[in-house]
From TrEMBL:
GO biological process: organic phosphonate metabolic process
Keyword Lyase: yes
Coiled coil, from the record: none
Database matches in Pfam families: PhnH
Identification of the protein by name: Phosphonate C-P lyase system protein PhnH
Entry keywords, A to Z: Lyase
SUPFAM superfamilies noted in UniProt: PhnH-like (SSF159709)
Length: 189
């Protein structure tokens, strides 16, 4: 498939997930690079270009160089990045710290906030109840993130319209998005 059509299709998939939080959609595979899922690369090639910055959480200079080569985006520190990539095997403490450092925009320009692209595993017993715009009443989804990550996200998103958006990609190429307007609460099992 031609790159333009590929990225347009990926963008539509991401917008469906953002407008309907908790909706799980399938991504197509893109370039394979060591350290991230091929579907994560689909998201990166769609969202990143020479006008934006990105950071990779953890020590991954080779991964940064490859993402920069494929997308043309500029490497930045986490606190200044437009997009923050969190590879699957990233430590929970590093993820929480990245969320705490991520830019949230300001009241004049809330769009100057960060989007975190987080790789997760598909199999999980952790259930989250989501509420907010785009969700009728509530929806419950399985998502392999910890209560500490959800709490850090909630703290950054407490002053709407400020906050961070999060896109989760699993190893099966499924994507789920949690925009800043979505509230997530753990479900007792």
């Amino acid at each position: 498939m031609e790159l333009t059509h590929f990225t347009q299709q990926t963008f539509r998939t991401l917008m469906t997930c953002m407008s309907r939080p908790g909706t799980k959609e399938a991504l197509q595979k893109d370039a394979m690079i060591d350290g991230i899922y091929a579907e994560t690369m689909s998201v990166l090639r769609t969202m990143l270009d020479g006008e934006v910055t990105f950071a990779v959480v953890g020590q991954a200079p080779r991964l940064q160089q490859e993402v920069m080569a494929w997308t043309g985006a500029n490497v930045s520190e986490v606190a200044d990045a437009d997009f923050i990539l969190v590879p699957q095997h990233t430590d929970e403490a590093q993820i929480v710290e990245a969320i705490q450092q991520a830019k949230i925009g300001d009241l004049v320009d809330p769009q100057y906030s960060a989007t975190l692209i987080v790789e997760v595993v598909a199999e999980t017993s952790q259930q989250w109840q989501l509420t907010g715009p785009g969700i009728q009443d509530n929806t419950i989804i399985p998502l392999a993130i910890t209560p500490n990550i959800v709490a850090a996200r909630a703290a950054r998103n407490k002053e709407f319209p400020l906050g961070v958006d999060m896109i989760f990609v699993n190893e099966h190429g499924e994507v789920v998005a949690l925009p800043r307007t979505t509230k997530a609460e753990g479900v007792e099992q």
